[in-house]
């Protein structure tokens, strides 16, 4: 498997995915889509970790990805539960409708 | 054995103060008087015992000392509450307790009609405690405690009749002006502590000659700072303006605090720290100069006053000027001798004046008195004795012996010179003039105000005792060519150095005769001006230059006006500008800025998730930009 | 092998773009699954087979199923898609795209100018990962376990259906 994939390219891919995730979070009004975009961002970060781990031949990158995975699982479960409650209270998933603070 | 009783001297009046301050309102007048006057009298009796013991068997090291407890401990600085009695403090303790007791007894009758009887005695007792602490202190910190304590009591008692706003004003004036001197003195104490690491008086006096050079700047500065404290307390130039106004207090207060004891604290301080002053010729010259200038200025002012108590106040300033002059001349024992004699006759004069004022229904103006010679005989005779002593009537009055010494040293001491001698001599002349004037206006001539009530026995007996001392106390110290008795200076030479005379000075008799002549001249001149030919005085007063001079002297040489313009007005002006505190504006500005910033930032807390994420992204861009740029 | 990477990278990017542009949540979700699967291929190519499998099993398997459950529970269908279409106007895109472009440019710049030159990627097998996970990172693993536990408890608590509403003003709107 000693294919010469340049690490810069992998990092560029991770950066692209991350930025796409950010764009998704900003432009979407639906909470579910925002949560999906957050997942994309998490994956992008994980990709960067794994690329770095492979680059230095260290297991730490993969360990970090596993932690990210655990964190994502917990986040998604709590986040989805919150979405359920929000939907039951507001009858909507529009994030702008939840703006109750007037600043 | 006796040194273990030392603590009782201040303890009696302290207990009196505590009892009167806590339960004064519930005590009957009888018990208030017993506690108030009795505590000080007990102290006086105890002082007599201890003093006799001290004189008959003087301890080898020349002092009794008693450590009561350690005040506090900060690293190496461990001031203790230690009482220290040597010959110098013995004289002061004697004067404070003895005259204090007499004045307390007098006050029992004098203040009988006052509604704040207990408050009066509580303050007086506290004053006696503080004054005793001042003179018995073993270290300068304890001395400073007493020093501030007497200042507080002076304030409380000048403003005793506080219903009248002008009395409160006088009290504040006295407090603030003496505070100027006290601040300088505190700085002096800092310097001493910085230099020696201790404030113990015996230690400092022992260390100074070996550590400091004669005439060094540090010596002069320290001496002048201590002197400034003394000048404030003793109402000397240029801080003398508070004493005439301090006469707003009751007459016994004037007698005890503003004549006999507190105002001589400056004299005590300079005498106590004499080693430092000896090392600094400049400081000693300043002491003599201040004394000379003060005695002259106050003498002229005393000449023009019509309020009998203000005459006495100015004469007090003038007589303390004599003491400072003596200190400056290196005539330490002469200064302390004059202090003791002055305490007797000035207390007597104030008490007698108080009796006259009360007898004439609170009439202070001497021009509306007169003819009291036959109506108040006891007061007349005692007042006569006091005046004789003040005017230094030769041979028979105690004042003559003490003042003559100072006059002689003004010429003969190694620091003395013709100018100082002439000033002192002229001061003696002025003293004779204004004393005679006061006496003539008060007791001779026609009665202008009816006597409303007569003094009781409780008032006249202290007067008689003081009169006795005013006459005969001088005989314990007689001039060299006239008896040559040196009981008093022998005692004090345990503590204070001998006065060094110029070589080859003779003719002390000539100087004494001159002093006598001047005194009689002054008395005769006053006799002519205010008794034989009062119309001449009136005519003199009408002439243009004299009336201006008269007004100038009457206002105390315009010091009050100058201070008003130079110090009080600017301070009040600055205070009025700064009513809302400029410095505060800065801090208020910070607070307002924070509130504004908070408002501005709270707009970002819109609750809009998108807005937050944009914030995050912009933050990330910023951080990355920094990395890109760097 | 190089070509495999570029193909999967393209698939990943394409499916990710599709995720953020779809109107129908189920479509978006399916594209995300594709994205995750292709990402796991990339992981495999990068020499991390263990993680590649985890990505498929946990992410694409478990987590995505959670999303599907929620979407089904809320019954998000055609109306949601229509609503999304209304929300996603072209003007909405301008600001975020500009910001993202700047961020991306900076990221690219930093990655390309990074000093250490390119090295070949090496395989790190699951054994090494397991040893590392249970020796130096043991505390981390336990913390992750606690986090998951908290997530489970939190989700169960939050997801509870309550008859009463926390906010008294919303009472009228609450259906029976």
Question: What is this entry, summarized?
Answer:
The complex is a heterotrimer of chains A (103), B (630) and C (176). By secondary structure, chain A is mostly helical.
Features:
A: mainly alpha; Helix Hairpins; elongated; B: two-stranded antiparallel ribbon; 26 helices; 2 strands; globular; quinone binding (chain A); NADH_UbQ_OxRdtase_chain4L/K (chain A); quinone (chain A)
List the helices and strands and how they pair.
The complex is a heterotrimer of chains A (103), B (630) and C (176).
Chain A: H1 7-27, H2 31-56, H3 60-90
Helix pairs in contact in A: 1-2, 2-3
Chain B: H1 8-23, H2 29-56, E1 63-70, E2 80-86, H3 87-110, H4 117-136, H5 140-158, H6 165-196, H7 201-211, H8 217-233, H9 242-245, H10 251-260, H11 265-272, H12 274-278, H13 281-304, H14 308-328, H15 332-359, H16 377-391, H17 398-412, H18 418-443, H19 457-472, H20 487-492, H21 508-532, H22 534-542, H23 544-554, H24 559-577, H25 582-602, H26 609-629
Antiparallel strand pairs in B: 1-2
Helix pairs in contact in B: 1-2, 1-4, 2-3, 2-4, 3-4, 3-10, 3-15, 3-19, 4-5, 5-6, 5-10, 6-8, 8-11, 8-13, 10-15, 13-14, 13-18, 13-23, 14-15, 14-17, 14-18, 15-16, 15-17, 15-19, 16-18, 16-19, 17-18, 18-21, 21-22
Chain C: H1 2-21, H2 25-45, H3 49-74, H4 78-87, H5 90-112, H6 126-134, H7 138-158
Helix pairs in contact in C: 1-2, 2-3
Give a written overview of the molecule.
Chain B: GO terms for molecular function: NADH dehydrogenase (ubiquinone) activity; NADH dehydrogenase activity. Chain B: Its main location: membrane. The complex is a heterotrimer of chains A (103), B (630) and C (176). Chain A has a domain at 29-93: Orthogonal Bundle (Helix Hairpins), CATH 1.10.287. In chain A, 76% of the residues lie in helices and 0% in strands. Chain A is built from three helices and no strands. Chain A is elongated. The mean pLDDT of chain A is 85. Among the domains of chain B are: 330-542, no CATH class; 544-576, no CATH class; 581-629. In chain B, 72% of the residues lie in helices and 2% in strands. Chain B has helices at 8-23, 29-56, 87-110, 117-136, 140-158, 165-196, 201-211, 217-233, 242-245, 251-260, 265-272, 274-278, 281-304, 308-328, 332-359, 377-391, 398-412, 418-443, 457-472, 487-492, 508-532, 534-542, 544-554, 559-577, 582-602, 609-629; strands spanning 63-70, 80-86. A two-stranded antiparallel ribbon of chain B has the order 1-2. The radius of gyration of chain B is 29 Å and the shape is globular. Chain C has seven helices and no strands. Chain C has helices at 2-21, 25-45, 49-74, 78-87, 90-112, 126-134, 138-158. The termini of chain C are far apart. Chain C has one domain (2-170): NADH-ubiquinone/plastoquinone oxidoreductase chain 6, subunit NuoJ (Four Helix Bundle (Hemerythrin (Met), subunit A)), CATH 1.20.120.1200. Chain C is globular, with a radius of gyration of 22 Å. The interface between A and C is large, with 73 and 92 residues.
């Amino acid at each position: 498997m000693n294919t010469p994939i340049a690490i810069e390219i992998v990092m560029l891919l991770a950066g692209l995915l991350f930025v796409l995730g950010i764009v998704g979070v900003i432009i979407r009004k639906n909470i579910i889509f925002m949560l999906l975009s957050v997942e994309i961002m998490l994956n992008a970060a994980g990709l960067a970790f794994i690329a770095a781990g492979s680059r230095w031949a260290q297991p730490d990158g993969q360990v970090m990805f596993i932690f990210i995975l655990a964190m994502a699982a917990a986040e998604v479960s709590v986040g989805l539960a919150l979405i359920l409650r929000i939907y039951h209270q507001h009858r909507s998933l529009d994030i702008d409708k939840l703006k109750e603070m007037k600043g | 054995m006796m040194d273990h009783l030392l603590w009782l001297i201040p303890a009696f009046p302290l207990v009196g103060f505590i009892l009167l301050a806590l339960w004064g309102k519930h005590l009957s007048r009888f018990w208030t008087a017993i506690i108030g006057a009795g505590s000080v009298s007990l102290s006086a009796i105890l002082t007599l015992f201890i003093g006799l013991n001290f004189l008959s068997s003087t301890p080898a090291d020349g002092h009794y000392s008693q450590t009561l407890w350690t005040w506090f401990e900060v690293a190496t600085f461990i001031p203790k509450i230690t009482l220290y009695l040597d010959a110098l403090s013995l004289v002061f303790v004697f004067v404070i307790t003895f005259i204090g007791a007499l004045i307390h007894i007098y006050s029992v009758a004098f203040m009988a009609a006052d509604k704040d009887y207990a408050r009066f005695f509580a303050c007086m007792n506290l004053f006696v405690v503080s004054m005793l602490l001042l003179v018995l202190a073993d270290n300068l910190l304890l001395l400073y405690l007493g020093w501030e304590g007497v200042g507080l009591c002076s304030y409380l008692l000048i403003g005793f009749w506080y219903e009248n706003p002008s009395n409160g004003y006088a009290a504040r004036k006295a407090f603030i002006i003496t505070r100027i001197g006290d601040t300088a003195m505190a700085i002096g104490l800092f310097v001493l502590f910085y230099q020696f690491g201790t404030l113990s008086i015996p230690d400092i006096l022992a260390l100074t000659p070996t550590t400091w050079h004669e005439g060094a700047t540090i010596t002069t500065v320290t001496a002048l700072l201590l002197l400034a404290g003394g000048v404030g307390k003793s109402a000397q130039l240029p801080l003398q303006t508070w004493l005439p106004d301090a006469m707003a207090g009751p007459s016994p207060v004037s007698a005890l605090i503003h004549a006999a004891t507190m105002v001589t604290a400056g004299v005590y301080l300079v005498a106590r720290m004499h080693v430092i002053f000896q090392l600094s010729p400049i400081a000693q010259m300043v002491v003599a100069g201040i004394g000379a200038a003060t005695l002259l200025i106050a003498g002229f002012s005393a000449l023009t006053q019509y309020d009998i108590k203000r005459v006495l106040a100015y004469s007090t300033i003038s007589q303390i000027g004599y003491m400072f002059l003596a200190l400056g001349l290196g005539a330490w024992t002469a200064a302390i001798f004059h202090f003791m004699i002055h305490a007797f006759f000035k207390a007597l004069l104030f008490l007698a004046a108080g009796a006259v004022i009360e007898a004439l229904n609170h009439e202070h103006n001497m021009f509306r008195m007169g003819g009291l010679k036959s109506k108040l005989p006891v007061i007349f005779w005692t007042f006569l004795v006091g005046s004789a002593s003040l005017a230094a009537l030769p041979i028979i009055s105690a004042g003559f012996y003490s003042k003559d010494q100072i006059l002689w040293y003004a010429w003969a001491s190694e620091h003395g010179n013709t100018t100082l001698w002439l000033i002192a001599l002229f001061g003696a002349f002025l003293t004779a003039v204004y004393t005679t004037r006061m006496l003539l206006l008060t007791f001779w001539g026609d009665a202008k105000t009816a006597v409303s009530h007569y003094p009781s026995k409780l008032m006249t007996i202290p007067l008689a005792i003081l009169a006795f001392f005013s006459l005969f106390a001088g005989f314990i110290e007689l001039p060299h060519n006239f008896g040559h008795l040196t009981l008093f200076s022998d005692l004090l030479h345990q503590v204070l150095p001998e006065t060094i005379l110029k070589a080859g000075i003779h003719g002390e008799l000539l100087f004494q005769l001159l002093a006598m002549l001047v005194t009689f001249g002054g008395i005769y001149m006053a006799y002519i001006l205010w008794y034989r030919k009062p119309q001449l005085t009136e005519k003199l007063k009408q002439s243009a230059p004299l009336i201006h001079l008269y007004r100038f002297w009457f206002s105390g040489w315009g010091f009050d006006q100058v201070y008003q313009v130079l110090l009080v007005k600017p301070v009040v002006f600055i205070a009025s500008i700064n009513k809302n505190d400029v410095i505060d504006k800065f801090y208020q500005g910070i607070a307002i800025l924070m509130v504004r910033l908070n408002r501005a930032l709270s707009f970002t807390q819109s609750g809009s998730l998108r807005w937050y994420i944009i914030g995050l992204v912009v933050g990330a861009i910023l951080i990355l930009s920094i990395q890109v740029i760097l | 092998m190089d070509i495999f990477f570029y193909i999967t990278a393209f698939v990943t990017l394409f499916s990710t773009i599709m995720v953020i542009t779809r109107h129908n949540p189920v479509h978006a979700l399916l594209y995300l699954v594709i994205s995750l699967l292709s990402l796991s291929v990339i992981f495999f190519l990068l020499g991390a087979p263990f993680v590649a499998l985890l990505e498929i099993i946990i992410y694409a398997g478990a987590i995505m199923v959670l999303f599907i459950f929620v979407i089904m529970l809320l019954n998000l269908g055609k109306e949601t898609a229509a609503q999304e279409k209304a929300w996603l106007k072209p003007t909405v895109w301008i600001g975020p795209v500009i910001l993202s472009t700047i961020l991306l440019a900076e990221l690219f710049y930093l990655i390309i100018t990074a000093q250490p030159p390119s090295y070949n990627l090496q395989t790190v097998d699951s054994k090494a990962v397991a040893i590392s996970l249970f020796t130096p990172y043991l505390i981390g693993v336990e913390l992750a376990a606690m986090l998951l536990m908290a997530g489970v408890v939190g989700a169960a608590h939050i997801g509870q259906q309550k008859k009463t509403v926390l906010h008294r003003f919303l009472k009228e709107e609450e259906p029976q």
